[in-house]
Specification:
The complex is a heterotrimer of chains A (165), B (234) and C (255).
Chain A lengths: L1 H21 L8 H21 L4 H23 L3 H9 L5 H16 L4 H35 L1 H4 L10
Helix pairs in contact in A: 1-2, 1-4, 2-3, 2-4, 3-4, 3-6, 5-6
Chain B lengths: L1 H36 L3 H26 L6 H21 L11 H20 L13 H14 L6 H22 L4 H22 L3 E2 L2 H21 L1
Chain C lengths: L2 H20 L4 H15 L2 E6 L3 E7 L6 E7 L7 H17 L3 H12 L3 E2 L1 H18 L4 H23 L4 H22 L4 H7 L7 H13 L2 H29 L5
Antiparallel strand pairs in C: 1-2, 2-3
């Protein structure tokens, strides 16, 4: 049962990554690797959050690191820079709901501005949502960039000798 | 409980408005025949005006008037206003032409006839007037729109198509929730029409765009099969 | 090297980097690639970038000849294919010692490659949003409703963008349309209607510019990183506005 949950999580994350990625016009040869990376990363985050009780920020960092490392190896195969593979793969983890809820709490705060208790609650909620969304996004970017810092030479010559131009 | 409220509101609606319903249906029938056999620009405009009118009818008379006892009926009013807006936009820009392309016309004609089957199915299920489904209920109107789009599919109003498609998905979930098996007709019609329209739109762009038409065709059909499987299972 | 040749090189590299920046490539890669092409042609390139314009100086170390140019960055849709292939072009120029004409020729070839079929993108984005709904715990009805609601919303976005409507208005309108379509799930009384409503607008979230902005910041291009981030955040505000109109109409409360 747990295995099915993990697999289906990875599967749907892969579809989500390919779909949201296709908006940004990736090369067709990159699609399978985007799917694999997204599935691995999202499933890893799911496991960390649900079975090990890790918080969403740390779990995102680990998942992004997995995706970034994977993109170093796959990028060489299809002659794509790392970002072409890891940005679409990270898209299912972008904290969209937290981001717009930040704005919602702000609007609700204005509406309840005269009531001291409710106004406070919404302000608190805004800071909570804003902090989570920014930290998760930041950790996604950092986690995926760490492999670039570690493997400078290899990471910056992904497209060398490309057969696709 | 919800099911009871639902069927009662349909009964009230039919009992009060049946002469109007018949009038609207005959206008629709006349316009359809004119467009089919004597197409002319004024008939095209008249059809679009009729579409706007019928959407607003559903929005205000059905949902705002008789459906207001249900939860969130105002959402449905807004949604049908959106459909009216899509036809109004089409009327203003003159985008769709209601011309026949000769392709998949049989499907279109079947779908145009299907709304008339609604009351018969209800009667055969043992329901009595006024508590029956009629061709002027939202789902049968949606089916009629789908039929019009399909029968005159040279250049279609894609907004209206997508909105009607969305409506059919809602109708599918209604089958089990409100016990209204008549909507299975709409459900059965919406998937082939989705495949046909999406593939047609894909083909228009496939010369100058990636990926190739063949691959995408497989994907669309596969998704449609999965959707159909889900519906049968549910 | 003559002044004319230097100007020619500057013109080409200006075009190259403006296309890359416009197509949403992170800054450090653009700078690195442009310098690599410069090295291949035997010149030094220095670049200053900002959100809307970029400045570059191309100079020859022996003859003291140089040329400076300020270019506007055109607003292209994001393209990862350009990112990959234009990067490969810089390596090809470096490794094969291509002439300027050869590089220009290949550049034209790359930028005229076919784009994604918009209907395919529409279909894929809807599928993606439906599976996103599943990740948030939606059931099959919520997924189906999200699928078609996204189709309507995304088609609105594509249509308005093609008509060159201001992109903030595009985001507000398509967020409103998608969420009003998804809110019809509430009328059905299914438990997961809230999830369908919450995920229906997520296809609009500008994930790529957000991540790009943060990558720029971690790479040390902090100014352009922040401006990209703020730009993307403006779009999120627009999404929230469009969706809050729906929520106010339907539920009278946002949270």
């Amino acid at each position: 049962m747990i295995a099915i949950d993990i697999i289906s999580d990875g599967l749907f994350a892969a579809v989500a990554a390919m779909g949201f990625g296709s908006i940004s016009d990736p090369p067709l040869r990159a699609f399978p690797y985007i799917a694999i990376l997204a599935a691995a990363g999202h499933a890893a985050r799911y496991c960390l959050m649900n079975f090990l009780g890790v918080d969403i920020v740390t779990a995102s960092l680990v998942a992004a690191f997995i995706i970034g490392t994977g993109s170093v190896f796959f990028g060489r195969k299809v002659f794509c820079p790392m970002t072409v593979l890891y940005i679409p793969a990270l898209l299912p983890m972008v904290p969209g709901t937290y981001a717009y809820k930040t704005v919602f709490s702000l609007i609700m705060f204005f509406q309840e501005i005269s009531s001291p208790t409710k106004g406070n609650e919404y302000l608190q909620e805004m800071i909570y949502n804003g902090a989570v969304s920014f930290s998760v996004l930041f950790m996604l970017a950092v986690g995926a960039t760490i492999p670039v810092f570690l493997l400078r030479e290899r990471a910056n010559s992904m497209t060398r000798g490309s057969k696709f131009i | 409980m919800m099911e009871q409220i639902f069927w009662n509101s349909i009964a009230d609606y039919n009992a009060d408005t049946w002469p109007w319903q018949i009038a609207m249906m005959s206008i629709a029938a006349v316009l359809t025949f004119i467009l089919r056999f004597r197409p002319s620009p004024w008939a095209k405009t008249a059809m679009k005006i009729y579409m706007v009118a019928v959407s607003l009818w559903i929005a205000f008379v059905y949902y705002m008037g008789y459906g207001s006892v249900r939860d969130y009926s105002n959402v449905m009013t807004i949604f049908w206003c959106l459909i009216a807006l899509s036809w109004l936009y089409d009327l203003a820009t003159g985008f769709s032409t209601f011309q026949r392309s000769g392709k998949s016309e049989v499907w279109g004609i079947i779908m145009l006839v299907l709304p008339l089957a609604y009351p018969f199915i209800s009667v055969s299920r043992g329901l009595v007037f006024p508590q029956i489904t009629t061709p002027m209920l939202p789902s049968s109107v949606a089916l009629y729109m789908l039929g019009m789009l399909m029968a005159f599919n040279k250049k279609i109003n894609f907004f209206a198509f997508l909105l009607v498609l969305h409506w059919s998905v809602i109708a599918i979930s209604k089958i089990s929730i409100f016990n209204i098996p008549e909507d299975a007709l709409l459900a059965a019609a919406c998937i082939p029409s989705m495949v046909i329209f999406v593939l047609h739109a894909l083909k228009e762009n496939s010369e100058t765009h990636k990926p190739s038409y063949g691959t995408v065709k497989m994907l669309v059909i596969a998704v449609a099969l999965v959707l159909a499987g889900c519906m049968v299972a549910a | 090297m003559t002044q004319e040749y230097i100007i020619e090189i500057a013109n080409f590299i200006a075009r190259y980097l403006s296309y890359m920046l416009g197509a949403g490539v992170h800054t450090s890669r653009v700078v690195r690639n442009s310098k690599r092409i410069g090295t291949a042609l035997g010149v030094d390139v220095s670049i200053h970038t900002s959100q809307k314009t970029a400045t570059l100086t191309v100079s020859d170390h022996d003859s003291q000849v140089f040329s400076t140019k300020v270019v506007d960055i055109p607003a292209f849709p994001i393209s990862f294919e350009w990112n990959a292939d234009l990067s490969a072009l810089s390596w090809a120029a470096h490794d094969e010692k291509l002439s300027l004409e050869a590089i220009e020729h290949k550049f034209e070839e790359i930028i005229s490659k076919p784009k994604m079929n918009p209907v395919f993108v529409l279909f894929m984005a809807s599928l993606a949003n439906a599976s996103f709904c599943r990740l948030f715990g939606g059931d099959i009805w919520a997924m189906l409703i999200t699928f078609t609601a996204t189709m309507v919303g995304f088609f609105t976005r594509q249509h308005l963008t093609r008509r060159k409507v201001n992109h903030y208005i595009v985001f507000i309108v398509s967020a409103f349309v998608a969420s009003i379509c998804a809110s019809t799930a509430l009328a059905l009384g299914i438990e997961t209607a809230e999830i369908a409503l919450a995920t229906s607008v997520l296809y609009l979230v500008p994930g790529v510019p957000l991540i790009n902005g943060l990558i720029d910041i971690t790479d040390g291009h902090i100014q352009i990183g922040i401006s990209r981030f703020v730009n993307a955040f403006m779009l999120i505000i627009c999404i929230a506005i469009g969706m809050s109109v729906t929520l106010m109409l339907v539920k009278d409360s946002l949270l």
